[in-house]
Design brief:
This protein has 138 residues and is mainly α. Helix content is 62%, strand content 7%. The chain has helices at residues 7-14, 18-26, 46-59, 64-75, 81-115, 126-133, and strands at 3-6, 34-35, 41-44.
């Protein structure tokens, strides 16, 4: 029997909590090998690898839907690596867009921080005024 691990051990080995394992199961990303009459789920050792894959992919910004597609590509023996590259390239473009947006936020916040004299009262705070105006000039 390949199913050896109960949910708690799978979670510990993968570095996630039990609720995460259950959530991924509900999302169809993983499945127990066997469900005993007692209600216990038994998972294959491969489930730990799959959970680590999911967590690593999430850290790179992939959504769970994207991860599901990557997992299917991982299983497909005839799938070419180019299909995986295409998904990674799409994610990279999204990340680059976020970096550009974050740099813009950094510039605005930096400017706001430098406009604050630190000594005045909050009724004349340039940071609060800018937030109220939404970046509009008076």
């Amino acid at each position: 029997m390949n199913a050896e691990l109960k949910i708690g051990r799978v979670a510990r080995e993968a570095g996630v909590n039990i609720q995460t394992v259950r959530y991924y199961e509900r999302r169809g990303l993983i499945a127990p090998e066997i469900r005993l009459d007692s209600g216990y789920r038994l998972y294959a050792l491969e489930t730990v690898r799959k959970l680590r894959f999911i967590k690593n992919a999430q850290e790179l910004g992939f959504t769970l839907d994207e991860i599901a597609r990557l997992l299917k590509l991982r299983i497909g023996r005839r799938t070419q690596c180019g299909a995986v590259r295409k998904q990674a390239q799409a994610r990279l473009e999204i990340v680059r867009g976020k970096i550009t947006a974050l740099r813009g936020m950094e510039r605005v916040l930096n400017r706001l921080v430098h406009t604050c004299a630190k000594r005045g009262t909050t009724d004349a705070c340039p940071i609060l005024e800018s937030l109220e105006e939404g970046g509009k000039k008076k």
